[in-house]
Write a structure and sequence with these properties.
Layout (H helix, E strand, L loop, with lengths): L1 E4 L8 E3 L1 H13 L8 E8 L5 E8 L7 E5 L2 E5 L1 H7 L2 E7 L4 E6 L5 E2 L6 E2 L1
Parallel strand pairs: 1-5, 2-7, 3-6
Antiparallel strand pairs: 3-4, 5-6, 7-8, 9-10
GO molecular function: 2 iron, 2 sulfur cluster binding; 4 iron, 4 sulfur cluster binding; iron ion binding
Pfam families: Fe-S_biosyn
InterPro entries: ATAP (IPR016092), ATAP_core_dom (IPR000361), FeS_cluster_insertion_CS (IPR017870), HesB-like_dom_sf (IPR035903)
């Protein structure tokens, strides 16, 4: 398992904003998760009209080959295959009039579908 810290995340797998970390940690705490071991899994899966989409879920611990990014007390687990698609991305949390939720700003995306739910690299 490899670990990247926020200080080097700009050229690493993913950078986590303070807003995203706060929201994820609050949700994990509500679910009774161990915040010292568990984390948010960020992954890429086949699907959507553009071909790929993001997935997120909470995991109790990282898998053996995961990259673990730690920032603002949040641990984010990324599997090697997903890291190829999301390297250099920023995980943010946005709250606005139209929508509220987690958002991935991915510099590798060359096109997105009209609804913004899927992408192509």
């Amino acid at each position: 398992m490899s670990t990247e810290h926020a200080s080097g995340a700009s050229d690493g797998v993913v950078k986590i904003t303070p807003e995203a970390a706060t929201q994820a940690l609050e949700l994990m705490d509500r679910e009774g998760m161990d915040l010292d071991v568990g984390g948010l899994r960020l992954f890429v899966q086949q699907g959507g009209c553009a071909g790929l989409s993001y997935g997120m879920r909470f995991d109790d611990e990282p898998e053996e080959d995961d990259m673990v990014v730690e920032s603002n007390d949040l641990r984010v687990f990324v599997d090697p295959a997903s890291a190829d698609y999301i390297g250099g991305s920023v995980l943010d949390y946005e709250a606005g009039l139209q929508a509220e939720g987690f958002h991935v700003e991915n510099p590798n995306v060359v096109s997105e579908c009209g609804c913004g739910e899927s992408f192509r690299t």
